[in-house]
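Hi everyone, sorry if this is the wrong subforum. Our group has a chain we'd like a structural model of before ordering constructs, and none of us has done structure prediction before. Sequence below.
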Amino acid sequence: MNNRIDAIYARQSIDKKDSISIESQIEFCKYELRGGSCREYQDKGYSGKNTDRP
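Answer:
Right subforum, don't worry. Here is the predicted structure as tokens:
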């Protein structure tokens, strides 16, 4: 029995104006999962340099 759950972690840069949207990242990852179940985590508005984030 496989109890595996994939996770999608999408983060949008606050420093770059042309960064890929969180929605686009999640959509692409779900496509790659080919219908598999997953949990989504979003991190918008926090710098990747800052480890003190939700």
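For your construct planning: Residues 11 and 43 are 5 Å apart (CA to CA). The mean pLDDT is 83.
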